[in-house]
């Protein structure tokens, strides 16, 4: 397993149809997958609330 695989966790998320349609449309607008869009939304919310530490430039490079 790669390091990235060890760092991610899978889980089931139940979302109502209207919300899911909005997320899928947003993801398409941003040229992301639905999963990628959800990860971005969660990361942004955590960052804005101060619950997620900022990544250093070298950490960003490792996760790409």
Q: What keyword list fits this structure?
A:
single chain, 64 residues, mainly alpha, 4 helices, 0% strand, globular
Radius of gyration: 14 Å
Average pLDDT, all residues: 86
Annotation field: number of helices: 4
The biggest sheet amounts to: none
The total of beta strands comes to 0
Uncertain runs are none
Topology pattern, helix = H, strand = E: HHHH
Question: Proportion of β residues?
Answer: under 5%
Report the end-to-end length measured between terminal Cα atoms: 16 Å
What class, by secondary structure content?
mainly alpha
Count of domain modules: 1
> What helical percentage do the residues reach?
55-70%
The geometry reads as globular
3D architecture notes:
With 64 residues, the protein is mainly alpha-helical. It has one domain. Helices cover 61% and strands 0% of the residues. The protein is built from 4 helices and no strands. Helix 2 packs across helix 3. The protein is globular, with a radius of gyration of 14 Å. The two termini are 16 Å apart. The relative contact order is 0.09. The model has no long low-confidence stretch (mean pLDDT 86).
Helices and strands in order:
Blueprint: H1 3-7, H2 17-29, H3 34-48, H4 57-62
Helix pairs in contact: 2-3
What can be said about this structure in brief?
It is built from 4 helices and no strands. The protein is an all-alpha fold. It starts with a helix and ends with a helix.
């Amino acid at each position: 397993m790669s390091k990235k695989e060890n760092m991610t966790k899978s889980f089931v998320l139940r979302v109502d149809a209207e919300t899911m349609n909005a997320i899928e449309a947003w993801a398409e607008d941003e040229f992301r997958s639905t999963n990628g869009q959800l990860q971005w939304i969660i990361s942004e919310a955590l960052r804005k609330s101060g619950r997620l530490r900022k990544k250093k430039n070298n950490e960003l490079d490792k996760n790409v």
